[in-house]
Amino acid sequence: MTPNERRAVEALEADIDRERARADCPCVRALLVILSKGLANIAEAGGQARRAA
Prior knowledge:
The chain has three helices and no strands. By secondary structure, the protein is mainly alpha-helical. The two termini are 17 Å apart.
């Protein structure tokens, strides 16, 4: 992953974390945690794995 891609992923993770902190519903918070944790794996995956995700 390039430095620009890494910064973009980190910015998106920060946005997700802010939304999670503001979410009222526990189920929404849980989904945002799952998304945030999986985001780095998707970003580091190869092209074919990204398309499959």
